[in-house]
Amino acid sequence: MTVLASADQLVAARTARSRYRSGSAEPTSGVAAGLTQANLIAVPADWAFETLLYTQRNPKPCPVLEVIEAGAVESALAPGSDIRTDIGRYRIWRDGELTEEVPDATAAWDEHPDLVAFLIGCSFTFETGLAQAGIPIRHQEIGRNVPMYRTNIDCTPAGRLRGEMVVSMRPIPAGRVADAVQISGRTPAVHGAPVHIGDPASLGIADLGRPDFGDAPDVRDGEIPVFWACGVTPQAAIMASRPPFAVTHAPGYMFITDVPDAEYIV
Amino acid sequence: MTVLASADQLVAARTARSRYRSGSAEPTSGVAAGLTQANLIAVPADWAFETLLYTQRNPKPCPVLEVIEAGAVESALAPGSDIRTDIGRYRIWRDGELTEEVPDATAAWDEHPDLVAFLIGCSFTFETGLAQAGIPIRHQEIGRNVPMYRTNIDCTPAGRLRGEMVVSMRPIPAGRVADAVQISGRTPAVHGAPVHIGDPASLGIADLGRPDFGDAPDVRDGEIPVFWACGVTPQAAIMASRPPFAVTHAPGYMFITDVPDAEYIV
């Protein structure tokens, strides 16, 4: 489906990218509302096939929106963008260890000019649909980053890459859980329907109040924790598989594209 | 979604694969009804990343269901299968030229043990849904192979790979065209909604009666030609891009899996 962004949306997206390019940072949930945001993972060229294969085998957590080949830095989803600078916070990984968090990844690309960048769909895309249906997006309401958790679900390996699935969690009023499933299920290209509803323990999550990434949740009476596959999953694969070098966004600090969320609705 | 095949379906699929393994061949439209069929393209390992990238950039014609890595020959979608033998007719391509059509591709794998095989979704998957809705599948009714056409739509290139989109065509009664769009649109992982409805000329198709692959159509009064992106598109990429070696299925002679079509419904 081809859906056009409004002029206002494009201004909001370009303004946000320009802000991040100048060094500022903010969790991007709710920023440039209605436009798709993306997770980033960039790896040296000799890891690119395995990374793409890992995403193909694990499409719920790793839906690829675009691959920016070695030598290129502009995203086709955001003309004029520069993937090295237009995210608020980057993470630099060496041998599977997070070694730096920086506002600009130009030095990383200078160090590894053969980096291949993967933009991966983000659950923020279907938050637009949830909000339009009057379903509360708690972490936005209280100005926090969405809570994310490592789970006991193993992804399907690809070559040297393996790791567990990471999920994001939103507390949903019990009477709206089915709506949340159906609305997010209409965007299979960006995580789609939840992978799990209501029982953190069976995902191996010991304490819902202490997420592995993002901020603590605020689950209220009558609300059910609903878990979606999360684009931070490649970062778990980096930790488990220890490629020599990688660059990612920092969880919650996404790449903002010019593409409307509605583009991904089936 | 996880959907289980019935025992009868599994017997039908295994019997068909076993028949093809023994050397027989038939167009597979309607065979092992309700189970997903797949297109094949296998390329040497040094073309694998570009091929996977080409499919990622052209998901409507090239939806990847599975990648069988170099050294492996069993499909996870059909336990016990052998991708070298379980298709009725294979095509062998050298430098972009079709040089042989054979009932067994074991010699090709012996010649190139590093072949990486891609199984790509097939429009036969949504034919099940069309038939259940009472929409006639003409080529099945008259015992022919579905007609397929090269078009003037360029796919997005990836590295050395480029080529035009190939489409399959089904004549649909004008009053059922919208139903056909909605039913096929529910399976975005297997070509999804049509790419074009009603005007062959604007796709660059000069004569609907002379398809580039498959058999001539039978379009009757009150029927509209409806075009879906087709998994033969990688064969057009082979012709245009001339990799040194490739193996594909012959159009219409698909790989039959054990996975229900319903698995791919959103």
Automatic annotation (TrEMBL), chains A, B:
Domain of life: Bacteria
Lyase recorded as keyword: yes
Pfam families named in the record: D-Glu_cyclase
EC number from the UniProt entry: 4.2.1.-
Enzyme class: lyase
Stored InterPro entries: D-Glu_cyclase, Putative_hydro-lyase, UPF0317
GO MF term list: lyase activity
NCBIfam families the record matches: PRK05463.1 (NF003969)
Family affiliation: Belongs to the D-glutamate cyclase family.
HAMAP family, sorted: Hydro_lyase (MF_01830)
Protein name: Putative hydro-lyase HD600_001479
Record organism: Microbacterium ginsengiterrae
